Amino acid sequence: MIWVVGAMLCFAATLNYLDRGALGIVTKEIYRDLRIDDTDYSQITAAFLTIYAFMYPVSGYVIDRLGTRLGYAIFIFFWSVAQILHGFVRGKWSLMTMRLLLGISEPGAWPGAAKTVDEWFPADRRALGIGVFNSGTSLGSILAPIVVALVTQRFGWRAAFVATGALGLLWMAAWLFLYNPPHRNRWLPRDEYERMKTRLPPPSESKPAPGELSSRWRLLRARGCWVLIVTRFFTDPVIFFMIFWGFKFLRDYHKFTLDEVARYSWIPYAFGGIGYLFGGWLSGRLMDAGWTMPRARKFVMALGAAVMPVAIAAPYVPNGGLAIAAMCFTTFGHALWVANLQTLPTDMFHGPDIGTVTGFTGFGGSIGGAITQLGIGYVVARVGYAPLFLLAGILHPFAAVLTYWLLPDRIIAAGKT
After folding, report:
1. Euclidean distance between CA atoms 401 and 303, whole angstroms
2. Using 50, 70 and 90 to split pLDDT, how confident is the model at 387?
3. What is the C-alpha to C-alpha distance for residues 250 and 261, in angstroms, rounded to an integer?
């Protein structure tokens, strides 16, 4: 049953990134039909990430308050409806409104996944659980150019948003039917639960009391929380750049057609999926070999940061194939990093706080993404993509230095003791 839960989380992330990635694939069609340009597009993506950032801590509190089963279902219902409504927009402002609705609801996926992983996975397998979930983001990015391009070519770009949004409503129904925590899950055989429960945190029904949202801010004083906020502020913008501008880079800079985007641009995200799974597995394997949990987590993060500078080459190589190869290093390195970075809240905090802390850290990443999105349109229009890939190559190594400096092993190790 644990891998059924993992598969459900993976598919939720797939839908999340399929929905948000659809916009970047059909930019030329939307530019033409809605009469918008790169500046408008950067404002729309920045608006999405700004509301996304502020909803991250709120969604974490909601998940902690309602629990994973109901909380997750509510968020995916609203983001699926918002995605469907994209098919009915008429201009820049209605498109921005739909992106804001998407940004309000999509952040719930990450606190929900972190809390679910804490409920189902032991400490030495949590990074793998997070990796399985995050591999869905790569799968969504792989499927997005294929699904969206095919639907757009046959039925138009509006139908692509309606079709991808409808898939989320199907996932919600399956989630409500299948999911409960292990100690209350009717699909988990009793003998299997007895074997696994000794390696899991004790079942906890405790939730933040109604009206306790203001007191949750106390978690910001914990070093583990504010360091992760800062770390994600510097590194999340890289993957947002890849999601919102990666397809456009290939179409603008290397003259890919929509058909070529569908055929080739999935490749970097396949490497990202491999990185999420490998990064999650590797830290667990190192722990099995005797490494401490903090050392294993930070080593794999540093390994991911070490390959990121290859991204700098993407605008300078002579053809699209080599550009995609450079982008593969970007997504693979980021995946190694994230599979362990996003596991740290489950290592350092207790069940009733995990969703909230994950929300706070996601706020940092999304604010960083929103700020950079405002500038990307200006840079692309006046300078090109080279400065952006330069930043994509150096931000993770910088954040790795910050993590080793500001988050000593003893802070991580003391988390749940």
Report:
1. 12
2. very high
3. 8
Tokens representing 166 are: 């409808």
Rounded Cα gap, residues 283 and 84, in angstroms: 39
- Report CA-CA distances (Å) from 334 to 146, 179, 301: 23, 30, 9
Amino acid at 388: L
pLDDT exceeds 60 at position 22: yes
Contacts of 262 (CB under 8 A, 6+ apart): 145, 146, 149, 150
Residue 396 in contact with residue 304, Cβ under 8 Å?
yes
Distance CA(237)–CA(52), nearest Å, equals: 13
> Residue 234's pLDDT is what?
95
Beta carbons of 104 and 182 less than 8 angstroms apart:
no
The pLDDT confidence band at residue 215, using thresholds 50, 70 and 90, is low
Q: Which CATH superfamily is domain 2-188+219-413 in?
A: MFS general substrate transporter like domains (1.20.1250.20)
DSSP string, 14-43: HHHHHHHHHHHHTHHHHHHHHT--HHHHHH
Q: Indicate if the pLDDT at residue 330 is higher than 90.
A: yes
Express each pLDDT in 343-371 by its tens digit: 888 888 876 777 788 888 888 888 888 88
Q: Which residues contact 327 (CB under 8 A, 6 or more apart)?
A: 242, 246, 268, 311, 314
What is the domain partition of the chain in residue ranges?
A: 2-188+219-413
In this structure, the number of other CB atoms found within 10 A of the CB of residue 382 comes to 7
Q: What DSSP designation does 189 have?
A: -
The C-alpha atoms of residue 321 and residue 104 are separated, in whole angstroms, by 36
Cα–Cα separations (whole angstroms), residue 79 to 20, 338, 369: 10, 23, 19
